[in-house]
Amino acid sequence: MKIVVADRNISHHRERFESRLPADATVGWHTEITSPELAADLTDADVFVGSTFTAAMSCAAPKLRLVHLAGAGTDGIDFDALRPHVQFANTFHHESSIAEYVVAVSILLWRRFLAQDRQLRENVWASPVYDGALPQMDTIGAAQVGFVGFGHIGQSAWNLLRTFGCTGAAITGRGLTGDGAGLRWIGARDGLDDLIHESDIIVVSAPLTVQTRSMIGATQLEALGPRGLLVNVGRGPLVDEKALYNALSNRDIAGAAVDVWYDYPGPNGVGTPSELPFADLDNLVMTPHSSGITRQTFLGRVNDITDNIGRLHRGEPLTNTIASDLASFMRTLPAVARPHLANNWHRFVGDPDDPERLADMMARAPITKVDLIRTPLMVIQGANDVRVVQAESDNLVNALRARGVEVEYLIQADEGHGAVNPENMIEMWRSISRFLARHLGGRA
User: Fold this and answer.
1) What's the pTM?
2) What would you report as the CA-atom Rg of the chain, rounded to the nearest whole angstrom?
3) Among residues 314, 295, 305, 323, which one has the least CA distance to residue 5?
4) Separation of alpha carbons 245 and 47, rounded Å
5) Alpha-carbon dihedral of residues 243, 248, 252, 256, nearest 10 degrees?
6) Bigger pLDDT: 16 or 209?
7) What count of Cα atoms within 13 Å lies in the side-chain half-sphere of residue 253?
8) Mean pLDDT over each residue of the chain, to the nearest integer
9) 165 by DSSP, 3-state: which?
10) Which domains does the chain possess?
């Protein structure tokens, strides 16, 4: 088995990575994604590990069986270039590190430590002890925090912030409403303006899609107000670039921390993060997309990646796969359901172990038809479903949202294959009613 790795963060853990591989595995290590050496190494590779995978790389890798992201975001993956038989997986483990960043910069800005640091360097003691015009600041526990996106990152950040006494609310692409996770409320994206009006700190961690690009603009930043703070750990373009610069330079908001940007450097790591002079602002914490870059993040990712390579070597189903297809559905069925495959799925759909049938199944799989889906879709998933695993729904929803299709996604954390909890059933039917009313008209 041959593995090709093109990720600098994974290369920091080269010894651990190689020690966890099957005994017959060989590894080619690269730093430049466009190098001729990488293309040559891909010709007989079984596995590629990295954050970018292009059509040219796919053409160079006819024997490839797995593309494994070295992180969570799929921005650099050309899904249309993946051959039908190639599996695709990602990994997380960054949420705790990013949550730590969110708390650190929130306190830094909320307590005005950033401004005090700069003023003391000029021998000005900016404290109410010496300047009676300055207010005594609240602790971070007095803040109302609004989460734009409440996935792995948002939930981890909230788990830390709530220990300080903060109150919180969130909007998500899933459109959940009601109480949850100790928040005051969780709503759909159309609740963004309400969220911002009532929040002191906005934490942005939503995925970047056609629908979410520039979702926070001049109107939202004005509503955040002169005491408000913004922390962006999602993607830069979620917040309108010019609107953010103007809001900070005009003091329309008190400050911001930005870890994700509008422009990125080349391989040498030198380049401006924006065409606008953000570096001149004294109420902004600027970091180079480093909030999730910790040793713990990448140790966890190395474990995930090498575990999946081991599963591929043994012919077992992979974890964290990103492909809503018939083959992966069959491969992830629990053992109790597999005896029935030969009599129904293999007979009427196909056997994924037959290359010809596999290609036909992939051509008919939902994940290959997302370009044809235009109407709004609602997906309801039991998080503990072992027959139709959540990863299948996650992947379809993410692929549709990346193409701008409106998807309402309800995940019920304590359900399996079909809702049985009466409260969950009520929530499900209410959500369906609201969804149909919104798109077909009528009362909800």
Assistant:
1) 0.73
2) 24
3) 305
4) 42
5) 100
6) 16
7) 32
8) 89
9) coil
10) 1-94+292-322 (3.40.50.720), 95-286 (3.40.50.720), 369-444 (no CATH)
